[in-house]
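Subgroup meeting minutes
Present: P.N., E.W., G.H.
Scribe: E.W.

1. P.N. recapped why we're keeping a running log of single-chain structure predictions: easier to compare across weeks, and new members can see raw inputs and outputs side by side.
2. G.H. added today's entry (305 aa).
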Amino acid sequence: MDNTNKKSFSGLIAAPFTPMNRNAEINAGVIEKYADHLIKSNVSGVFVCGTTGEGPSLTTEERKLILEKWVEHSQGKLKVICHVGGVSLNQCIDLAVHAGMNGADAIGAFAPFFFKASTPKDLLSFLAPIANAVPNLPFYYYHFPSLTGVTFSVSDILPEARKMIPGFAGVKFTHNDLFDMQRCLNYNHGEFEILHGYDEVLLAGLSLGVKAAVGSTYNYMPQVYLKLWKAFENKDIAKARELQLFSVKVVETLIRHGGPIKAGKAVMKMLGIDCGPCRLPISKFAQAEYEILKKTLQDKGFFFD
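Output recorded in log:
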């Protein structure tokens, strides 16, 4: 399929947490309520089983179940990108084929993070059979070097990407290298779609021309970013900066309380959507710390009603 200049996504795309019970087993029953919450929040889609969804900590069957439930409960009102990346090529292909057969709108995969590709060509050689297993689905490379350790400039990958992956649609760009991001956005007159991946610098991405963003904080404070986006479009940069700074303060707080996944799940519980604990090695949230986090966020102006 030729995806040239086809833009599949726009606006905010939430990266959902994976609901678990107290024993860190999948609690898929929460997804219906979760999807309804996101639909009402006016996000445009979900990126499931990625970093926020603890994808690398899940089994193949768990990842398949989660995708099926998100497709079912999104009711066509949310576009669903399924992350199928991992360290086993056969597993990634299996997940990609499953996503294609079960209603995903697109798939994505990050670079294998244990045995690492030594050149951009090696990386594409790993990604190509995953993407080409479902040629009718747009494929996005998930660039997250701080976690994968794979640091090739994405703009150096793009010239070969289309040749090796006909369905290559773009990149989920989770990196602070805005020089590389701008090169990607403008490669071949904007041929590829760049999904902005750092919530706390969304304004920078908008200034470079991104049209869609994927993030964890869009689960519980999308209104902040929707207002930011509107302010940017209205050329009210002072207001956009103010809203971005609020986002930064929230993210700083989450980092001090175990990080965006652990603390983010706690925030979802505060909103009435209990996603449970994380899987080890991410530790459980103690009740005392939960109360401290809630009060700290409230003191910063975060509202839970």
